[in-house]
Inverse folding.
């Protein structure tokens, strides 16, 4: 809720800045910028304010359940689920720090982790070691999965570039603002496989 209110106030400032930028961009891009700005200070903020309490409650129970299962896995769940849920609820209260401009999100995340580790260690009487293992295990698992996916996909992508010559003819270094022109030369029998990126591409 606090983050939604802050986003609304910050969105007003962003809207003013975007209106100045719209005067110097093509009409098509200005239209998309206008739509985004209206969503930023209108429906998007309203939806966040209305849905935040409901989603927070759902995520709090789901997160507490996952943490309690991990504590059981590490033999640290010496008290019932309610003890874990209480600590998670207190830690979620720190999300109010997200209303602090600039570093609020970082403060809430770091302080929330500290509160979870210390709180679970005390509430479950398992010590900070097992509590830290349970709290940090999901992040560690996500890092392992990302590294594994990168290790599998990177060699295939690099292999797909063998025999392909790329040269930028027009890019940001040449003053391009909205488009870039790329020259691609393929050796006989060579091609680039299916891939995905965040920009549009045309041939």
């Amino acid at each position: 809720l606090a983050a939604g209110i802050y986003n609304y106030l910050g969105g007003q400032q962003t809207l003013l800045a975007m209106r100045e930028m719209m005067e110097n961009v093509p009409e098509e891009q200005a239209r998309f910028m206008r739509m985004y700005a209206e969503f930023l200070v209108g429906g998007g903020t309203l939806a966040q304010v209305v849905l935040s309490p409901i989603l927070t409650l759902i995520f709090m129970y789901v997160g507490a359940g996952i943490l309690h299962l991990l504590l059981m896995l590490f033999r640290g769940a010496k008290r019932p689920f309610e003890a874990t849920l209480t600590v998670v609820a207190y830690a979620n209260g720190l999300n109010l720090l997200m209303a602090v401009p600039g570093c609020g999100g970082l403060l809430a995340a770091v302080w929330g982790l500290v509160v979870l580790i210390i709180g679970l260690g005390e509430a479950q009487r398992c010590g900070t070691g097992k509590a830290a293992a349970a709290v940090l295990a999901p992040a560690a698992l996500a890092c392992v999965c990302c590294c594994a996916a990168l290790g599998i996909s990177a060699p295939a992508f690099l292999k797909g570039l063998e025999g392909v010559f790329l040269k930028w003819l027009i890019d940001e270094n040449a003053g391009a603002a909205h488009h870039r022109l790329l020259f691609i030369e393929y050796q006989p029998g060579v091609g680039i496989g299916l891939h995905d990126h965040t920009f549009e591409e045309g041939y």
Notes: The mean pLDDT is 77.
